[in-house]
Amino acid sequence: MPLNIIQGDITTLKVDAIVNAANEDLAMGGGVCGAIFAAAGKEELKTACAGLGPCKVGHAVMTPGFKLPAKHVIHAVGPIWRGGKHQEEELLRQAYLSSLQLAEGAGLASLAFPLISSGIYGYPKDEALLVAVTAIGDFLKESEMQVTLVIYDRKSFSLEPTMVYTLQ
Ligand code: AR6
Question: What ipTM was estimated for this complex?
């Protein structure tokens, strides 16, 4: 099944689950995390997250989506970029795989990701995009799921979508 890459706001998507680029405490933060908490209902999501943390880098947990169009939120913790020699690539790949495996285990059919770690956590955007596409692409060779990768700020990328699509 293909991976869709779109530009947009992940909080508007009506899918079985959207993925949050979370922190280890599963606390409300900025970026896509802040947008997801605001759209889901801050208090409901904070309460749901309170009992689930901490969540290690590379791991993921699931809550309801509350007021979001998406039924669930999968909170995945990506690595903070520290120059690239601290297992960042493997940990980022693991954050995608943990989310996909959690969704598959819960019987979900559709899942949308932001580009985990590529904002506040500082992972270079083009490299983060390549890790996302290859991790999701490898998973989809073995499993059936409708996966969307949401690019929020297209202008920050030097890779063209055609370059990305050839990696699927
Ligand atoms: N829809 C889709 N993508 C978005 C949206 C949106 N509404 N808003 C931002 N992005 P970031 P991180 C993109 O910083 O780097 C939080 O405080 C954004 O352009 O949200 O993993 C957490 O609580 C970027 O490409 O997440 C953590 O503490 C991508 O989402 C920390 O930040 C990820 O940027 C996580 O940092």
Answer: 0.99
